Amino acid sequence: MSLWRRFREAHGVSLLLLGGLFFAVAALLDVWPISPLRYREGLYVTSDIHARVNFSVLPEDALPQRENQIVETAPAIFTLDQDRLDQLVAELKAFPDEIESFKAATQPSSLPANVRDPWLIEDEATLEAWQRIATNRANRLLYDRALEQLRKSLLARPIVTRDDADLQKNRLSSGDVLLDRKDGSEPISVHKRELISLDDPAAMQAQMESWLDFFPNDAIRPGIRAHLHRHLAQPIYVYDGLATRQRIDQQIDDLRANVSKLLLTKKRGDLLVQNIDALHPSVRDLLITRNRGDRLVPADTRIDRNRLRLLEAEHAQWRLTESHDNPWRTFQRVMGRVSVVLLVTVLMFAYIFRYERDLLSEYGRGLAAVFIMLAVLGLSKAVMFTEWNERVAVLSVMLGAVVLCVGYNQRLALMVAILLAVLATYQLRLDSNRMLILMAGATSAVLQLRDIRSRSKLIEVGAISAGVVLVTVLSVSASVGMPFSVSIRSALWAAGAALLVGFLVQGLLPLIEKVFRVATSMTLLEWTDPSKPLLRRLAMEAPGTFNHSLQLGMMCEAAAESIGARGLLARAGAYYHDVGKVNKPEYFVENQAGAPNPHHKLSPAMSLLIIIGHVKDGLEMAREYHVPDVLREFIVAHHGTTLVQYFYYAATEQRKADTDRAPDEVEFRYPGPKPRTKETAILMLADASESSVRAMPDPTPGRIETQVHTMVSRRLMDGQLDDCELTLREVHQIEASIIRSLNAMYHGRIAYPKLGGKKPSALSELGGEEKSDDEKPDGEKSDGEPPVPAATAAQAKNGTAQRQQQADKIRQSEDQ
What tens digit of pLDDT does each residue of 685-702 get? Predict the structure, then answer.
């Protein structure tokens, strides 16, 4: 046989394909990105972190803080109402000229009302004062100079509305406002206290008096005051929100254009994050608190947002420096990490090839297992790119281990879980302490999952594993000096993730059973319920086969448990292994109940088809009733490829009489397959042993032992156990268990003497005390015939237990 053929028959191709798929995806998950940032916000640092390169960073809140400062401190811009100011001053300046046109007037009454009333010219002194200003050049110059002073004062002391004044006074962070005079010059800055509200009488009166002081002639001041009151009913300056926003935006743009001024520069070796818990107590006490106003704020060794931004900038600069100065180092790092992943992959699939080769022969289940393992690594990788606590990685590793344990077995799940914990720790760039936490959670869960017989089992597993993880995290944290307040938080995260696994698997259990084509003990218990439609039909249409299946189920369960196999699976498989006999129950001896054997009218070949056909019929019925795949295996494999001896010998004798060629054995063998699991092999041995012992006329313990040994040896020598994993030691243990079970079923009965001349009591009629001659022990037969063996339990049909109970009740009443 060529090496390639041997390799292919050993499922080497499947090994390479599945292993290659796992390695490719696992390596990609590990090397992308090749140099991830290992820190995240809230992480407790166990040692000081120093800068590896020189770098600069813009503190996260520096630019927003500066922009907010600009918004808060930017002075508001008030725009001058030039038309109103010009009109106010122009009317004051033009009034003397208007008075001059009435220079002949000597009395106020001589003036028009529209001239006299607005300017309050009510007496001759006032009229004379205005006429002197209008006619005297010196007085006119003094008047014009006073108007200029008034104009400057109106420009410098802005009159605004009440709302605008209150808005600026409430802005505590800004002290100045800008006055835009719309003359092309730069706005002038004044303090916001100089804003005069139109609705503030006291301020307006005080300002009015200061304006009137510009005019030395007291006689004209009432008219000027009235004029000012008329024109200052509306503000001289108006708040310009658009101009204010534009000025703020311009300042922010200038800030962003010169953002380098805000950069924080660090040099190589500078301390970025310090573990204050590692300091001397006296030094730590100095750093543990700092004043902030009237409060004492505790220092923290965990990474906050600002520290994380600092570490991100340092890491980005380090990667840039590495790619520029040492381009081959990145390639070296990639190859090193890929080699480690390859080593773990080789170890994992070498174990599978050596101990779990069935996984390679069933492509669907093998691919599902690889998918589960890659999903574990993918979920663990997600922790690196999220804000989750890294302890959540316990969830992925535990979940994968539990799923593999349910879908396959504990040994595979335990080995794979350990290697997945190594890979998850490696790809997350964690230390050995974290790996210990992952292993503790996975192994504690797997070791509890030998059997799932109740709905609360998975919740119990999750709770106990959560406790193990909690203790492990606290222990590991204490070993590195982590404060309890920090470690208990991480421990609760990890324990919560472990507890969640139980609930997740509980909900996913039907899907897991369907994908991996397995049945948990909880599912098997449901299928062993006699009220199941298929079992109920078997009991009604083939009662003998049903009783045979029940007895065989007890025998198989005991034998399986004696070697550490799944006893419940063996019992459930025994219940359904002969369901195909329902179609033709009268052709099987256990259902004939003394009726003529229909095989006497058939040829051996036809009888063979009927006998062998119950396997195919049973498989079709199992599909019809949706029996789990794992139980269908018992239907097709419980006879393996054994020879149907009775009809083979009958056919041989028939052909001898016809001088025809003797038939080949292969023509009278079951189509198989041979048993491939321990449980199906146990069923084959128990079925053959029970059937042969049931056909014995006198099944004494010695003869039972001999017969069972003979049947087991035949199956062994016939090669029926070649495809399963039973060892010779286990075969002997199974044989001993079957012998014990059959001896219990076919035990002897104690005979009771019959009192001569007395009428049988009701108790004897029920079979409780009096026995027939055939049931008496040696030397007690009434007619002196040789003694016969005691009756066996196999001869006591259904109802014996009920009659015995009734007999016991009668005996108790007679004794009383």
Answer: 999 999 889 888 888 899
